[in-house]
Specification:
Layout: H1 7-21, H2 26-41, H3 45-61
Length: 64
Amino acid sequence: MTIAVSAVVLLGVFVFLLWRYARLPLWQAAVCSAFGYYLAASSIGPTIGDGLRALAGFVAGLDL
């Protein structure tokens, strides 16, 4: 069974949990999200995507 989850969704859940339980101010959560979109649109975005895919492949290959 394969589950595909976008990195944007994971970042959104992580920021929401920080906002909800770690008392992250809402403006800092907005800045974090905006920076994520800015970083993805930059020239380093494809490199970050490749790194995340490699990490996902490594985790999927672990035999727990």
